[in-house]
């Protein structure tokens, strides 16, 4: 399963990847908005937004792509490693299909 993480701190990118791998996920981390961000997202199983450390434009682009491609979104205000762990545990416990009921 694959996850796209939008936001977070650049210095923690490697830590985010280790945490995701430990939970059995492949992860792409975007801490800054690259050119053609909407195309870079691809088709992950879920998108995790760290809302405190991301620009509004990145959030709007990620949400727009998620709606267009029917990708579930999980939001977290904190961008800590424990916040990512908790979000990934929630994704596993409720299942990806049930995430749509939370939106």
Low-confidence stretches: 97-103
The structural domain count equals: 1
Helix content: 40-55%
Number of strands: 4
What can be said about the biggest beta sheet? 4 strands, parallel
Measured on Cα atoms, how large is the radius of gyration?
Answer: 12 Å
Tell me which oligomeric state these chains represent: single chain
Average pLDDT value? 88
> Architecture, CATH level 2?
3-Layer(aba) Sandwich
- The CATH homologous superfamily name equals NAD(P)-binding Rossmann-like Domain
CATH class: Alpha Beta
Number of helices: 5
Q: Would you tell me the structural class of the helices and strands? A: alpha/beta
Distance between the termini: 21 Å
User: What portion of residues belong to β-strands?
Assistant: 15-25%
Broad shape: globular
- According to CATH, the fold-level topology is Rossmann fold
Order of strands in the sheet with most strands: 2-1-3-4
Write a concise synopsis of the structure shown:
This protein is of the alpha/beta class. The protein has helices at 13-22, 37-40, 56-69, 81-94, 96-102, and strands at 2-6, 26-30, 46-50, 73-76. The longest helix has 14 residues, at 56-69.
Which descriptors would you attach to this protein?
four-stranded parallel sheet; alpha/beta; Rossmann fold; disordered C terminus; 18% strand; 5 helices; 4 strands; 103 residues; single chain
Task: Give a verbal description of the structure.
- 48% of the residues lie in helices and 18% in strands.
- By secondary structure, the protein is α/β, with parallel strands linked by helices.
- The protein has a single domain (2-102), classed as NAD(P)-binding Rossmann-like Domain (Rossmann fold).
- It has a four-stranded parallel beta sheet, sandwiched between helices.
- Strand 3 (46-50), helix 3 and strand 4 form a beta-alpha-beta unit.
- It is globular and about 30 Å long.
- The two termini are 21 Å apart.
